[in-house]
TrEMBL record:
Native organism: Dibothriocephalus latus
Protein name: Uncharacterized protein
Superkingdom, natural source: Eukaryota
InterPro entries, per database record: Ferritin-like, Ferritin-like_SF
């Protein structure tokens, strides 16, 4: 077994474990939002959008877990409670959660757009479907990166086939 020559300090290990818990909570939240949107026949685009965001949280949790274990740390997954450490809140807020903040901002904008539209189906069809298609194309285009490679592994065979067919159609058009 590979042992690290420079193991993690206890405080660093604890903060990374809390960060991993935050990523898993984000994944579960996005899965719940996806399930809520899948229950409504008019919003499959929102369901796909939340599915991709959940995959991103899951990938980040797995990459951080891999980092902790490769450095000789131990992963502790107990129940998640409120964060009370100010330094940890600053570190997560400043360094690690920029993408999450941006995702929440865009989700709020989409919810506002949905509320202002006349039809949930049309908003989903005209806004969310093209957004999800663009996101999946971007993931597939950068499939050599770690994040994209792990995302591709977590996608269903139907989603991967859709992305591959979309790429071949795009090549034929050029």
């Amino acid at each position: 077994m590979h042992t690290s020559s420079n193991p993690l300090e206890a405080e660093t290990q604890e903060k990374l474990n809390q960060l991993i818990k935050c990523w898993w909570v984000g994944d579960r939240t996005y899965m719940a939002l996806q399930a809520a949107c899948q229950g409504d026949n008019a919003m499959p685009g929102f369901a796909d959008y939340f599915h991709l965001l959940g995959i991103r949280c899951r990938v980040q949790a797995e990459l951080t877990t891999k980092y902790v274990t490769l450095r000789g740390g131990k992963l502790k997954m107990d129940t998640y409670g409120p964060i009370t450490d100010v330094d940890l809140m600053y570190y997560i807020g400043k360094k690690m959660m920029r993408h999450q903040t941006r995702s929440i901002y865009w989700a709020a904008r989409h919810i506002t757009g949905l509320e202002n539209s006349n039809s949930a189906y049309l908003y989903d069809r005209l806004t969310m479907r093209p957004l999800v298609a663009r996101m999946t194309r971007d993931i597939y285009a950068h499939r050599s990166s770690k994040w994209a490679a792990m995302t591709m592994q977590m996608m269903s065979p139907a989603e991967r086939a859709f992305m591959e067919n979309d790429e071949t159609t795009e090549r034929q058009c050029q």
